[in-house]
Amino acid sequence: MMGQQKYYMISDKVLPEIFKKVLTVKETLINGNAKDVLEAVKKEGISRSTYYKYKDDIFLMDETIYSKKITLVVLLSHEAGTLSKVLDCIAYNKGNVITINQDIPINMSANVTITLDVSHIDGEIKGLLIKLRSLDNVISVKLLAME
Questions:
Q1: Closest Cα partner for 53 from 24, 28, 19, 8?
Q2: Do 48 and 100 share a structural domain?
């Protein structure tokens, strides 16, 4: 079993330049200031592979507010009731599902992308991730984005 994933909040003063560029590419794509990833990475002077390597692991956090929405990618075993248990866990911890998208199962597992409102969640987001990872038939839980 892999070690538990940790999250850190650091100042941009010590953040390596490459991570700042990845964040700028993400913002450029969100704002529609580039037609695609290739155009956005060229503007920032980084490779597509660098962008894809880090894009799911770095987020801009506004220091004046706590996160209200998060997007998770959950890999589930293709077993009856597994998704229901994930949704029950989210609801029990006062998370509110905004959107959900489930891929078709391949090799007896399926990715589910869930965006949820966490403004009323019990405890920290980290606690919810730990609880979700501990559920039967949950293979992995990855924090994709925070807003």
A1: 19
A2: no
Q: Could you give the C-alpha distances from 138 to 110, 124, 127, 143, in angstroms and in order?
A: 10, 20, 16, 14
Among residues 49, 57, 63, the alpha carbon closest in space to that of 5 is found at 57
Same domain, 85 and 129: yes
Asked whether residue 6 carries a pLDDT value surpassing 80, the answer given is no
**Domain CATH for 126:** 3.30.70.260
Mean pLDDT across 75-104: 95
Q: 58 or 48: which carries more pLDDT confidence?
A: 48
Same domain, 33 and 77: no
pTM over 0.70: no
